[in-house]
Amino acid sequence: MDLLKGKVAIITGASRGIGKAIAIEFAKQGCNIAFSDVRRDENMEQCEKELRALGVKAAGYPSNAASFEESEKLIEDVVNEFGRIDCLVNNAGITRDNLLMRMSEQDWDLVININLKSVFNLTHACQKIMLKQRSGSIINMSSVVGVSGNAGQANYSASKAGIIGFTKSIAQELGSRNIRANAVAPGFIITDMTAQLSEEVRKEWEKKIPLRRGGSTEEVAKVCVFLASDMSSYVSGQVLNVCGAMNC
Ligand code: NAI
Asked: CA-to-CA distance for 185 and 160, rounded, in angstroms?
């Protein structure tokens, strides 16, 4: 299938995990891929190699999504290299879980800056390009805990809830220029982020999921393909839960 043939996407935090799966699924649909991560390492090089093997143009950029200046420079570099940006996927994110009484100011600031401010940084830089093109799809990676909250994740849940408010606002602000914005809210997805959890915690999570299993990165990526493609041309300002009916 060629749902994204000839389009250009930029995906943050895509050297591994959900971001990498999005890059691969987009490339399978003919999309050229620019992606970022904190550093150029073997994961970034491996991801570039896998994407190019799918016959698309692909380049990894070391760039801290929490930095306003680096995000501006990233978008400038991508436009110079790829000529346009059809889809922005704000995927980069981290956790620093703790009960509120043990949560440091540093862990609050870090999570808010990397998860939420990054979405502002990249969208702010990218909107100029999309406004000129009079088209674009912005996909922001939230989480089910941004909708429902979660004990021990006040910083993370706040950042992911903030993403939802931001997404709905820019969908209203940019809609008249044919720019769509949606949030994806994955539930329990099996990646390096969730691999840090103990077997016991993982089992507890699985019991709460009606489909009785964690999701795969590909299952999240396929929803992003839909949102990036013209198949979703009248879908904007929405939060799509990808959670095996955990949040319903
Ligand atoms: P991951 O930890 O496997 O991958 C995240 C990537 O983001 C890493 O490559 C990391 O180096 C990069 N990154 C971190 N800080 C960055 C920064 N400042 N600038 C650029 N890149 C940076 O995580 P995973 O599981 O793939 O998560 C991806 C997104 O999906 C995150 O936003 C996460 O919050 C969200 N999510 C994940 C869920 C899960 O169950 N794994 C559930 C719900 C949401």
From this structure: 9
